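In response to reviewer comment 3 from the previous cycle, which asked for concrete evidence that the modeling workflow produces usable outputs, we include below a single protein chain processed end to end. The sequence was submitted unchanged, and the resulting structure tokens are shown without manual editing.
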Amino acid sequence: MSLFKGCGVALVTPFDKNGNVNFEALDELLTHVIKGGVSALFACGTTGEPSTMTKAERESVISACVKKANGKIPVYAGSGANNTAEAVAFSRRCEELGVDGLLVVTPYYNKCTQGGAYLHYKAISDAVNIPIIVYNVPTRTGFNLSPQTVLKLCELKNVKGIKEASGDIDQMLEVARLIHGKMDWYSGDDSLTVPAMSIGAKGVISVAANVIPDTMSKITSLCFENKYSEAAKLGFDINPFVKKLFIEVNPIPCKKALNLMGINAGAPRLPLTELEPEHTELLKAEMQKLGIIHK
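The workflow returned the following structure tokens.
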């Protein structure tokens, strides 16, 4: 099974005023991003706050995404854990729920070796029959998957791609060089979408696409048309806004942005907090400049 091309959206999980999953707001968000032209939905990745959700909540959110997509665009479920047995079990469960693929973050906190990470992914790959996208995000996990290990992962039957979010351009280049023709890869950083696609990335798994799915989808489309200067210009236009989406830990600013534009994403769950007032004003100013919201 081939992976998606273009802009995948790393979905937030809306919560209501009592802290429960807000399925009405989730449906509104899904309508917004699908109408905006995204190529894939990613449920319960980092942006979706799965670390503070119960297994039942994660299953219900993933199921809602599968139902909404209705086979028209692929749905990937975040099924990673720092406990390999748990990751295997939940990956199997996500397959039962009807997802098209899995987004599996590298083991965190345990501080495994590169060999341990390989065996972690091998166990998950051997347990399922759907594609796996490896997710390397060392700023969140404390573990960096080396390019040489990424190359070795190409041997595994169901590992078909990687979300490269190390933020290290040299590492991105080396991953692109080593896995060319062997595995798909995606930028895990909105701001690096154009340079990543210029060296072979199949797209981006985007936080910003929660808010501006049309723009992020347009950037990837322009890259596929080899209109990199136009894509870069569009990227330059939104970059100040994208920077504000990370002015505090993701998804704090993204949830605030959605709330400001009328999609009730609610507040993050503790230990994450709502965006600080001074940062909210900076975010609002950039949203106003782009016409996302009006004064």
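Residues 228-244 form the longest helix (17 residues). We consider this sufficient to address the reviewer's concern, and the full set will be provided in the supplementary archive.
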